[in-house]
Structure formats: C-alpha cells, structure tokens
Fold this protein.
Amino acid sequence: MTNGQSFDIIVSYLGERETLREIVPPTNCPTCNSELEFVNDQLFCLNGLCSARSAKRLEHFAKTLKIKGLGPSTIDRLGLEDYDDIYYLSQVEISSLLDSEKLGTKLHTEIQNSKSVNLITLLPAFSIPLIGSSATNKLAKHISSIYEITPEICIEAGLGPKAASNLLTWLENTFFTNGYDKLPFSFTCDKQAEVSLTDTKGTVCISGKLKSYPTKAAAKQVLEKYGFIVKDSLTKDVTILLNESGIASSKTKKAEELGIKIFNNLKHIIEE
C-alpha cells in the first residue's frame, strides 16, 4: 500500500467519523429505567427509589460521618437501602453478612460512634443540593436544633434562595416523611455567636488532619464558640496555626517564618 493510498483511507475514515459524531443522550436511567431529566444542562435520574442513587447517597453519608469500612462493596453486601438500615443492624448481623466477626465488630463500633455527630456535620451528609458545611455553619449562628429551621431563619442565615428552597423542601417532604427524624441523632448543635474582628481572641488556621475532632467543621464550631475566627488559608491576619498531625506542612514552615504561634492540640488554644 502506498503512502497516497494510506492517506486516502485515513481521510475517508475521518470523514465517516465526522458523520457519526452526533451523540444521542440516554433517555432512561440504566439502573431503574426511570426517565432522565435535565438539571442545569446535566442528565439526572430523579427517582428517589433508584438503587444506584440510594447507594451513592449512603456512600456520601458514610464518608461525611467518617464511618470507616462502610464503602460501596460493604453497603452492597449488607443490603443497605436507606440511612436507617445502617443503624438497625446488630453487631452479630453485620458480622454474619460480612462473614467476619472482626470486621463486623469494628464496623459496628464505627457506626455507633457516628451517632454523636452534631447537626453541622450531619446535615451535609443527607445529600441535600447546595447544603454543605458552609450553609450549615451559617445556620448554626441562628439555630441550635434542626426543628428551628424556618424560611425566616434561612434568610437571616444568608442562605441563597435555591439552597433555602432545597433545604425546606427536604425537611417537609423527606425528613419527616421518610422517618429520618427517628434516626439516632440529637439533630442539635451549639448555637454559634457572631464574632466581630474587635472581639475575637485570635484567628486560627488549621493544617492537616485533626486528632481532637472528627472534622475541621466540628473543630471550627468549637473555636468560634470560644471567640476565635477560623480561616482555611494562612493569611496575614492569622495569629495561630493548629497542626495536630505533627507533619511539617508548607503552612507550618510559613508560620514559623512569620512568627505565628503553632499549637499541636486544639484544647491548648482554648486554655491559653
């Protein structure tokens, strides 16, 4: 075959590819066969009973609450379909389904420990669109319980119209209807006071993983309760760096250069 012939074949092949480029989007969910709907130019299955959606919700829930060992394969093996399924299984049942007493005992302990999370950590775990840690931290300045959330509170907290609508709709149509209010959580948090720059005890930046609290959001809540401002970045107004991991990060090195106080335990910051 000559170079000319090869070129003609390639051009012909590319020409055929051009005619096949039109992509026809799917119309139905491959798991539950429900009709797909466009949301912000993306296709979604909106069937609340779709097993694929349920599995993803449970994965997100377990990840947010830091339930170690409750990944996709374990969720499938345990036959979990909704949040309450996680908490109704006994240690014996989990061990039997996982065919391992050691794994069952460990996972059961992780599940029991997750019951102590506060509302700031819990609410984002429910996969409510636009309701993440930022939105719940705003709410925590105005409420101490999930039952205090109202349209007026959402406005006062500074939630956007769409985020507020998503949250209020979920509370009305899902939280009570699905019995999530019966889950083994307090659904409460310590109401956070607004801290002005003049009243603050200092500005804290958290570096690396924490040992004293399960999440940075939980640590932030405690620090703000005691009058500290918490920032994600090591800006020029930061006065304290919290590094409980013991790893010399770039933030740690920068803090040392700037003469910023470095603590390895959050409690020491509060006690100082």
About this structure: The first helix runs from residue 3 to 19. The domain at 51-116 is CATH 1.10.150 (DNA polymerase; domain 1). The chain has 13 helices and six strands. The chain has four domains: 1-47, 51-116, 119-182, 202-271.
